Every structure is written in structure tokens, then in C-alpha cells.
Amino acid sequence: MIGRSTKCVLAAAMLLLTVQGVMSAQKYPLPTAAQQAGIDKDASRHFGDSPADPGPLATDLSPDLTPAAIDAATRKVADWQLARSQPYFDRIWTWSVLYSGFMAASDSTGDAKYRDAMTAMAKKYDWSLRNRLPNADDQSVGQTYLELYLHDGKKDPAMIAPTRADLDSVIGLSTLKPGDPRIPWWWCDALFMAPGVWVRMSEATGDHKYIDYLNAQWQRTYDTLWDKDEHLYARDASYQAKREANGKKIFWSRGEGWVMAGIVRVLQYLPKNDPHRAFYVEQLREMSARVAQLQDTDGLWHAGLLDPEHYPLPEVSGSALFVYAMTWGVNEGVLDGATYRPVITKAWGGMLQHVYADGRLGCIQQTGPEPALYLPSASYTYGVGGFLLAASELKRMSLQHSGSGVVDTDPGRSANIVLPVPANPSLPTIFLVGDSTVRNGHGDGANNQMGWGEPFVSYFDTSKVNVVNRAIGGRSSRTYITEGHWERTLALIKPGDVVLFQFGHNDSGSLDDTARARGTINGVGDESKEIENPILKKHEVVHTFGWYMAQYVEETKAKGATPIICSLVPRKTWKDGKIVRGASSYGGWAREVAEKEHVGFIDLNEITARKYDALGEAGVEPLFGDPHTHTTLAGAEMNAESVVSGLKALKKDPVAKDFSGKGKAVKAYREK
């Protein structure tokens, strides 16, 4: 009979063989007994696990920093983690870091399911923290509560009231009195967990006391843990005298990642004029420079930054946090792009080498206070959170670096539809929603056709406002909703944004034909008709054009944003020497909805028709790339200018302060 100890030895040997197979037959030391006990505990709490056979590595991901490639990796990892973890959601820090990643993934991909899962989690726990007087770890879930609140149009005070009460009580603790040697953030991890909550609370309430607290406590932690020689943080004061096996100081990759990512989480909401901002920026620069020096040839970093030989496996959670922080720094102009893009690119490619075919993200060290050994298959929630944060900033960098504006492959009936997201989420955004007369194809002028949404951006100062054209060719006011495009667009909208809607060209089609099934019922009434949709393969209730337009308006208002309705641009159809107007149909119905809902209305149909009339048939001909509907670049430019003149004619122009020099030169439209 084989004894228990012999079985353990054989099991360990078999596990090592599996690890060797997964990692190209390289030998890696197994965790110690104490480390294995921690791994087992983490598994019992559903934080993650380290299976002996995690299956094959993914072969369908590309390291190219293109929006589509980044999006594919984001969804693969996020979907696997969401399905695996949602039944066990909790408020402890290991989960809250994942929640921050899901929030970023929702913003980046435009997929509302990640944000919806976070809302469900928050409601389950009544928007409360883990303890009434929490430490930094237990405060961390408040970042998600506050982000949900800040992006919610209704801004229900109940969403932040419990967290606010807890933070207010923390401010009064004796450990915060001047001269008290005890500090609340005594370990470096805390600089990710708590400060992001405090700065977001200040943003949500307008009360600067939360930033005052944040600045004071971070300074105390810096004074205690900052190593001026290595430009890194000790994990806590007890580690300042400890050494690695090679005699060097212990600097833990995930610990340094917590700090760098924590700096970013602060800078995202810290006022530009805050006198402490320069301190955080300089910290990010110093740490990024040192961390970049320690990057390994595979693009990643080891658990022990100064003793990689003792921890031979790359460590993905710390690496992901480094990538997140550095990429944000490049995106915001805090870090030099020429210096850090190669570091970031190499690291992203390295991380993708640890994604498995099912979406598992491996090589993540289990919980603990210091560098440790783990298996290649090790996957934990917080590491995935860091990966999703990194991916969201990488997508933003891809957009800014390429200048293409294309960031996302929008799922739906047409898999190749690509839609942009805000380049700078901290700025207000003007969203455009409509059909091919707003955005034709990929917006690249193919076939000598372009929608007015592409040149529209040049009328605005993009350092002040994002202009995001999410219109899709062939869609009606109905199908933009039923195919899910509006849901994903709505998820991106935040308070202070502006949304321009223009539909009508495709609403006159059949309600239930097998080619499009995109028509709506004429008018603005409450009429409806039940059909079996042959495209979506389901029962559907079809409403009037006005009903769908009103839905857009109401849901935009609910997000705290400003809806503006445009009548459809006219087709090149002449009658008696004048362009045929749409005042008796979709143009007029659009006006009726705007008046009923008390929102801005731009009569784009009439504004542009007058210009066409003045040019005459011969003058208008070069403005169209097809017989009657789609404009050339010149025609798109004319229509974009018409929209701007219509904006300026509104009683209250919500974007008046955001015009570029070109936009300022346009005169307001005046009705005759």
C-alpha cells in the first residue's frame, strides 16, 4: 500500500510535470507548505485557484495594440471571470479590485453587462462597506459604489450615503489626530484600496475634506515607507530591514503595482489645481522609471522585483497594475510616450501569453504580504481586475496614438460594425446617434460617401470635449435600439454629456420583411403592432417613430445628459426647382417629439434644404456620392456646419464653450 506521504510526493511530482508542460518544460519551484496553505484558503473563499490542468493556452488573441485585438482579450478574460465569480461576489478587497476592472471593461467595450453586474452587487449589499468603521481594504468597494453614482443620471443619494457616513466617522478617529504615530494606511497596498474612495467621494459631494484627509494620510505613508534610493515603497515598515535570498531589499511587484495604480486612481478625480497634484505626478514618474528598468525580457515583472531568480515565474497581477498606471500616464501626457510605449507594448504581449483558451488569466500570485511562489495556472480575482484596468487604458492609448477614433467592435446583427468610445473619459462628450447620413460605413469616405458626423468633430476643441460618432448605417430609430446599439451607447453616457439624434431615412421600411425588418409606424402616437421578427427570431411589439425618439430622450435625461433631436438631412430629390422637405413626415415628427419632450431641436432638414436651393441642382450634384442620399466629404462638411449653426440657434446651447476656432466662426441659424 502506498503511504500518505508517498502519495503527496507523487502528486507533487505529477503537478510539477503538468506545470512543466504548461510552461514549455521549464522547471519552477513549487510553493512551500505555508504558501500552499494560503493557496488552499484562497480557493475556499472563491478568490481563485491553481488547477493542475488548466487546459490549453489561448491561440486566438493578438498582441497588436489595435482596438479590436484589445477588445477581444478584454472580453475573453472578463466573460470567463464574470461567469465564474458572480455567485460569490463579496465586499472584501480581493473582489473590489475586480469590480474596478469590470467598471473599466464596461466603459471600454460599451458592454453594459459588466456594469449591470456591479449594480446588482451594490444593491445586494445596500451600498454599504464591509465594516462600519473600515480599514483601507474594506473601504475599497466604495470605489465602485461611487463610480456607479457618478455615472448615474438620477444620482440617488442612497447610493453613497452608507459609505459617506463611514468615511465621516473615520475622519474622527483618534489615529488621525496631529502627532499620533499610528497611520491608517500603514501598508503600501492601502494606497490603492482607500485613496480612490476618498477622492471620488469629494467629487460626488463637492466636499474638499475628503481630499484633505487623502493628502494628509498619503503623505504620512510616504514619509514612512518611501525608499529614496530605490524609488519604490516598502510593503510596510517591517520590511525595511528584511532582505531577499540574494541580499537585496524586498520590493514586491504587486505592492508597487498597488501604489502606482493607486496614484492613477487619485489623479483621475483630483482637481487640476490641487497643490498636491504635482506630488502624485512626480511619484508616478519616479516609480515608472524604476519599474521600467526592472522589466524582464518576456515583458513582465517577477514577484520579487530585485530577486527575479528566486521567483522565476512572471507575475501578472503586478505587471497588469504597472501597465495600467504607465498607460494612463502616457494617455494623460504625464509620462513620455516614446519612452514608455515600448515597455507597455512588450508587457501587454507578455500578459497575453498567460491567457488560457477558456479565458483564465494565469500566473497570478495568491494573497499575501510579500513575494511568494505559485503555479503558472494560478488565477485570482484581483489580478483579473488589474488586467481589465490595463486593457481599458490600452484601448484609449490605441485610439489616441492612431488618431482613428475607432475603438470598439460593437456586437449586434453586423459583427463588423466598429464604434468609438470617448477618448478621454474625464471630459464631457457629445455623442452622435443616427444612420448612414451621420456615419457612412466606417467613416473613412469609402465609395466617395461620408456622413456629417465625421467632419463635425473639427468644429470642437477636443481638449475640452470628446465628439463620439456612434451612428450606424442602415439603422432606423427602432433597430438601433432592438439590435442593442443604444443600450451600449447609453452605458457610456454620463452626466453633462450631450446626445444628438437623427433618424428617419430608414423608418419607412417594412415592419417585418426578411431583409431588414426596420420600419416604424408613422407618426408620434401610441399605436403599436405585434410581429414575429424574422431577423431577430423573436416576438416584437413595433411602435411609432415618435415613440422610439421619445425613448431616446427620456433615457438620455435619466443619465443626466442633454438630448437634442435633429430632423433628417434632405435627400437629393427636386420638385419645381426646390429640394423636397420632410416637414410633413419624419422632419415634422421629429419636431413634435422635441416640443413635447421640451428638448432642443435642430431643423437640419430645413437648414440644409435652403442651402441646396441656393446652390441649385448643378451646384448640389458634387455634394452627393450616390444618386440621392449619401453625401461626399464636401456635402458632409456642409451638413456638419448646418448642425453647428442649429446648435447655436438653440435657446441654451449646451456646447457653446467647447467650439474650436472653426466652430466659433459659424453663425447661428435664423428661421425666416
Features:
672 residues, alpha/beta, Glycosyltransferase, Rossmann fold, 2 domains, 5-stranded parallel sheet, two-stranded antiparallel sheet, 17 strands
Give a summary of the structure in a few sentences.
The protein is α/β, with parallel strands linked by helices and 672 residues long. Helices cover 45% and strands 8% of the residues. A hairpin with an 8-residue loop joins strand 7 (408-409) and strand 8.
Largest sheet: 5 strands, parallel
Text of the CATH class of the largest domain: Mainly Alpha
Q: How do the strands of the widest beta sheet line up side by side?
A: 10-9-11-14-17
- Rounded to the nearest angstrom, the radius of gyration is 28 Å
The proportion of residues in beta strands is 5-15%
How many β-strands, per DSSP?
A: 17
Biased composition (Basic and acidic residues): 39-48
GO molecular function: hydrolase activity, acting on ester bonds
GO biological process, one term: carbohydrate metabolic process
Domain SGNH hydrolase-type esterase: 433-636
Description:
InterPro entries: 6-hairpin_glycosidase_sf, 6hp_glycosidase-like_sf, Glyco_hydro_88, PolySaccharide_Degr_Enz, RhgT-like, SGNH_hydro, SGNH_hydro_sf. Residues 39-60 are annotated as: Disordered. This protein has two domains: 54-400, Alpha/alpha barrel (Glycosyltransferase); 410-664, Rossmann fold (3-Layer(aba) Sandwich). The chain has a five-stranded parallel beta sheet with strand order 10-9-11-14-17, with helices on both faces. Residues 1-25 and 402-416 have low confidence and may be disordered. 45% of the residues lie in helices and 8% in strands. The chain is an alpha/beta fold.
